[in-house]
Design a protein that fits this description.
single chain; alpha+beta; about 25% helix
């Protein structure tokens, strides 16, 4: 997880099955990005304690708390997601990308938060550039052109 203020650009690379969650408060120009690898912390409590951002269920909660600590207000937040793909194909046995997305959607739903935009699924890895000054998110996937989210 990485937080930023006006002027910062937060970047994450190689979002395959991992979840990239970006939260932005446009009024105070504060944002944060989470790059979570696995859906549920209960599969490895020791790792979850050492790095709660590794897991969707614990990392998303921490990201929202940090935004609020920096002055973000729930009513102003812009929430976007990327990743959650199946980079080794749609028949991937563990379906980590799909499970990451399902856990995210359940968490957001329980807390009355909707996604403003998403670039999830598919089979390509994504690189995300989050421009905190504007809230713009640029995504490059594989050999495809960059696009805004």
């Amino acid at each position: 997880m990485k937080m930023g203020r006006e002027g910062d650009v937060v970047v994450t690379h190689a979002l395959g099955s991992c979840l990239g969650l970006m939260i932005y408060d446009p009024s105070i120009k504060v944002g944060g990005m989470l790059h979570a690898m696995l859906p549920m912390a209960k599969i490895n409590p020791q790792k979850a304690e050492a790095n709660p951002y590794m897991f969707v269920d614990t990392g998303v909660v921490r990201l929202f708390k940090e935004i609020y600590r920096l002055g973000g207000k729930k009513s102003r937040l812009v929430v976007k997601a990327a990743g959650c793909a199946s980079p080794i194909g749609k028949d991937e046995m563990f379906k980590i990308g799909k499970r990451n997305y399902t856990v995210l959607k359940k968490l957001l739903w329980k807390n009355n938060v909707l996604l403003d935009a998403e670039a999830v699924g598919g089979t390509v890895s994504r690189t995300v550039h989050f421009h905190i000054s504007t809230g713009q998110i640029l995504i490059k996937s594989g050999q495809h052109q960059e696009f805004s989210l």
